[in-house]
Design a protein that fits this description.
With 328 residues, the protein is an alpha+beta fold. 33% of the residues lie in helices and 21% in strands. α2 packs parallel to α3. Mean pLDDT is 93; it is low at 316-328. Bound molecules: adenosine-5'-diphosphate and magnesium ion (MG). Residues 9, 13, 24-27, 85, 87, 115, 117-120 line the site of adenosine-5'-diphosphate.
Length: 328
């Protein structure tokens, strides 16, 4: 006989939540926010077939389900507090649930946050997590705060998650060791929470990279410009930080993955040029590589992607439709 709903919750999801006033088991969880802080709220869903493949490692999936949500808090400079999990399961698959909860708990423990509640229902496999964080009023990093002339920065490396996905889908051939390495980027992204906190008061606008650099940067440009007139940007293609497996690929593949790949979960942010030293210090403090990849331009200038000699390469409107990047 398979587990019932409540035994399933008890076995795989119910654990002490020392940070909460009340955790799993009642109609609501209770949480005591720090005085004077704003709550930062976000939720993200992972659906089988759309966000993960049926043969995914359940431990990696548990990790990623929480990671993509923490990444949103990181992008706002919010400190994670706790989270809720809505699980939709086609059947009770205990080895799968054990792996999923193991990956979920490990990342939760690393960020010292508790699962305080959720919902469990039968249906097509999907997980929706809701994260709660806090941030002092006025200090959240917003998409709308960029200014022309700002430096444009990214954390970590770009593009390798997309390369791994293409390899898994048979569109690219990678060696076994290379695929194993690239899969880490795809399946175990590390949300840049510490960096988001360190960038409060240092960065202007920020976003986390879930849909690809050009698409996500487009959101900053859109929201930071006057209505209907997005800011422009110039990106130096040679400056893009690439993962080591991606570096072994042809240049066109490198650029496509780094500019238009998704699932990087790095932070893309802008800062005044005069803040460059503080930005670098924040990166060092967090042990995160930060790379200046370009600058922001006046509204109407568009997005220019330059090669090392100042020549303009394909812009999102002209190229990379292979990935169907939504033009901003
Ligand atoms: P209700 O019917 O009042 O919504 P349930 O009986 O469905 O509550 O859930 C019982 C308790 O278990 C609640 O505290 C709920 O938050 C928690 N819970 C249910 N599913 C999950 C899950 N997948 N992960 C964590 N907590 C869960
Ligand atoms: Mg209830």
């Amino acid at each position: 006989v398979s587990l019932g709903e409540f035994d399933l919750i008890a076995r795989y999801f119910d654990a002490p939540a020392p940070g909460a006033v009340l955790g799993i088991g009642d109609d609501c969880a209770l949480w005591s926010p720090s005085p004077g802080q704003h709550l930062a709220l976000s939720c993200d869903t992972l659906v089988e077939g759309r966000h993960f493949l049926p043969d995914v490692d359940p431990i990696a999936l548990g990790h990623k389900a929480l990671a993509v949500n923490l990444s949103d808090l990181a992008a706002c400079g919010a400190r994670p507090c706790c989270f809720l999990l809505a699980a939709t399961l086609p059947r009770v698959d205990e080895p799968f649930l054990a792996g999923f909860s193991q990956g979920l708990r490990a990342l939760a423990a690393a960020h010292r946050i508790d699962l305080v509640g959720g919902n469990t229902t039968a249906g097509p496999l999907a997980f929706t997590l809701t994260v709660m964080g806090e941030v002092p009023p006025g200090q959240a990093l917003l998409r709308s705060a960029a200014q022309p002339g700002d430096d444009l920065w990214v954390s970590g490396t770009l593009g390798e998650a997309r390369l791994a996905l293409m390899a898994l889908q048979g569109q690219v051939k990678l060696g076994t060791a290379q695929l194993r390495q690239a899969r880490v980027a795809l399946e175990q992204p590390q949300p840049q929470v510490a960096l988001g906190l360190a960038l409060r008061g240092v960065a202007r606008a920020a976003i986390d990279l879930s849909d690809g650099l050009l698409a996500d940067l487009g959101h900053i440009l859109q929201r930071s410009g006057p209505t209907g007139r997005p800011l422009g940007a110039r990106i130096a293609c040679d400056a893009l930080p690439l993962g080591t497996v991606l570096q072994s690929q042809p240049v066109a593949m490198q650029q496509a993955c780094a500019l238009a790949g998704g699932d990087d979960y790095q932070l893309c942010f802008t800062a005044a040029a005069s803040a460059a030293t503080q930005v670098a210090a924040a990166g060092e403090r967090c042990g995160v590589r930060l790379t200046k990849i370009g600058c922001l331009l006046e509204p109407g200038a568009g997005v220019q992607v330059n090669d090392g000699h100042g020549r303009v390469l394909a812009t999102p409107q002209q190229g990379f439709d292979h990935f169907r990047v939504a033009p901003a």
